Amino acid sequence: MVRLNCVLLIDDDEPTNYLNEKLIREAGCADTVVTKESGEEGLEYLVSCAEGNIALPDLIFLDINMPAMNGWEFLEEYRKLDESIQSQVLLIMLSTSLNPDDHKRAEEMQEVAGFIHKPFTTITLEEILEDYFKSNGN
Q: Which terminus of the chain is less hemmed in, N or C, by CB atoms within 10 Å?
């Protein structure tokens, strides 16, 4: 089983964060699971990582539809972070959006490794770990 240091969940829906965090913890695939309820909080967390205060996440699950700063706006700011951060993080869009334009837009962004639909499942998590982390020797 692949084991990650940290997974960051960015979603404004508290019950969704709770369930996704529980799923990741029960899978035993991450030492730490961090939840943030806005794009701003997610960016603040990543800036703290850059300052060396906390561990950088290996994997970020990002919601699209959030108030104040949505997932797309988060990505605009994320692009401004140091390349050393971006190169170490896998970012997956996790959304209820069925809009094909959202899926296409995500595919066109180099920062986004994948786009998956909610609800998040154990099978989806296993597929992500297998597809993106297994070959890294984690």
A: N
Give SS3 for 26: helix
CATH number for the domain including 112? 3.40.50.2300
Kindly state whether residue 70 falls inside one of the protein's structural domains: yes
Angstrom distance (rounded) from CA 99 to CA 101: 5
Whether 52 and 21 have beta carbons less than 8 Å apart is answered as: no
Q: What's the average model confidence in pLDDT over 111-118?
A: 94
pLDDT of residue 54: 87
Q: Which domain holds residue 106?
A: 4-133
- The structural domain count of the chain equals 1
Please determine, for residue 136, whether its predicted confidence score (pLDDT) is greater than 80. no
CA dihedral sign of residues 32, 3, 28, 23: positive
**DSSP collapsed to 3 states, 84-95:** HHHCCCEEEEEE
